[in-house]
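FORM 7B: Structural annotation worksheet

SECTION A. Query
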Amino acid sequence: MSLSEEIKTKAREIGFDAVGIAPAEMGARERARLAGFVEGGEHGEMAWMADTLERRSHPKALWSEARSVIVLAANYGPDHDPMANLAQRDRGNISVYARHRDYHDLIKKRLKRLARWLQETHGREPSGDVKVFVDTAPVMEKPLAAQAGVGWQGKHSNLVSRAHGSWLFLGEVFTTLDLAPDAPEADHCGSCRACLDICPTAAFPRPYQLDARRCISYLTIEHKGHIPEEFLEAIGNRIYGCDDCLAVCPWNKFASATEELAFVARADLTLPLLTELAELNDAGFRARFSGSPIKRIGRDRFVRNVTIALGNSGDPSALPLLERLTRDHSELVRAMAVWAMERLVHRP
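SECTION B. Predicted structure
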């Protein structure tokens, strides 16, 4: 068995659902796409994209000695169609990836296990050093995953897998070992436009290009200020992220629900009542979202999102609660409470 095959066998034993190997290189097309994304301002307030542009644009810029990248993937597929959640207007719709514990913790532990095994068994070989990365590091994960044959970048710019559809968490082990690479995965989108056409805010100016400034995931998670009024109605009941472009992909017919218990949705994060979430103070927010990726945006931004969803709920019984929120300590919440009350009073 070759070293590459040994690595793949061990990775699956550790718990990864897909694994591939790519050279520590990045194609000119991918680098140009990244540069254009930043130069055009389509990264919005994500200043770290511009700050890390050089390191992000090439694996060797992150670690000059790297020769190969082992790309690992874990399936987090939901047990139902997330699009059905949009009809539950009195409840908060949380992106599938955030309905359980923060995936970074589990993925990084497994990456370290694989890296440790690789060093213990092959570290004596020439240049046997390793480094592990998850998506908090400046790594172009999706292009690397495509090069490694794990999937391809669809027209929504996210990774798509023939075996797992849209639902994969990614991580990487960079190594100085010169490993046999896998064949890159071909693009299987064909003429399909489902992901582009479903977007509620028209966040794709063209196939394979995202304008984050119009993306509901960006607006509800990364955007720190007031969300532009033109997007408020389109947000619907989405209070943290958006799965529309992922969920409609036809390749999800081959996807399966995750078997990893750590990725199974928590009951209290599956369509929670908006009125319940709007009442959270800072301490209540921290307690409710302990261990969840939602915690990082803080109470004020989260309740801002919840207040928008209340305005879109069509439920006039929320008016007394919204009236109280007009006196909230957060300007973000107060402004959205005024908007939400106006929308409920004059709802179509």
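SECTION C. Observations
The mean pLDDT is 91. The chain has 16 helices and eight strands.

SECTION D. Sign-off
Analyst initials: ____
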